[in-house]
Amino acid sequence: MSPSSTLPSSSPKPAKRRSIGARQNPEAEAAILTAAIAILTEKGPKGLTMDAVAREAKAGKATIYRWWPTRGALLLAVYARIKGDHTHADTGTFEGDVAAFFDYVFAFWRGDAGRVFALIIAEAQSDADVALALEAYRLERVTAWRAVVERAQARGDVQASVSPDALANTIIAVAWYHLVTGRLDVAGADLAAPIAAGCS
């Protein structure tokens, strides 16, 4: 997905779709997430209820709950759909990898996706379901960064004594801090240099 991507526009309300059981039907999943995006855009995270999504998507609430058991899980699924797949760059150096990440994610967050993710972080402060879903998402990001750190340790860029998980959490925390404080104009290299220096 391009860093300048914006929220997909909602499509006309579809006819009610048949479930295919526990396995997600791609057509129904797309309709539900499109409906959720439309509601989130218009009413914010508090307006994103399972009832509202079911009405907008003409889907059964049981189907929605089976695939996304909490509102928090649905919110993160919406963000994941907007975000799309992203693989951390292998630039040949750990500092370069971290700089490339910050440049990519800050550019991406300057679009509607950043507003959505900032809303999720804010909502997590008062909604336990959203907090749990956000924590699960954070752990997924830690896992992805762990592989980058271990690759850097194998190259000798990062000391073997450095905890991959601790370093991953530091990078994630820096990124999320810059999002919620609206400081997305910082160059990735300026943030990556002290992080890399502290673990080399």
Task: Please outline what is shown here.
This protein has helices at residues 26-43, 50-57, 61-67, 71-83, 94-109, 112-124, 128-155, 164-180, 188-197. The protein is mainly alpha-helical and 200 residues long. Helix 4 (71-83) runs antiparallel to helix 6 (112-124) and helix 5 packs parallel to helix 8 (164-180).
How far apart the termini lie comes to 32 Å
Please, how many helices? 9
Secondary-structure-based class equals mainly alpha
CATH superfamily of the largest domain: Tetracycline Repressor, domain 2
CATH architecture of the largest domain: Orthogonal Bundle
Kindly provide the radius of gyration, computed on alpha-carbon positions and rounded to a whole number of angstroms. Answer: 19 Å
Largest sheet: none
Summarize the structure in words.
The protein is mainly alpha-helical and 200 residues long. The chain folds into 2 domains: 1-84, Tetracycline Repressor, domain 2 (Orthogonal Bundle), CATH 1.10.357; 86-197, Tetracycline Repressor, domain 2 (Orthogonal Bundle), CATH 1.10.357.10. It has 9 helices and no strands. Helix 4 packs across helix 7 (128-155), helix 5 (94-109) runs parallel beside helix 8 (164-180) and helix 6 (112-124) packs across helix 7. The longest helix has 28 residues, at 128-155. The radius of gyration is 19 Å and the shape is elongated.
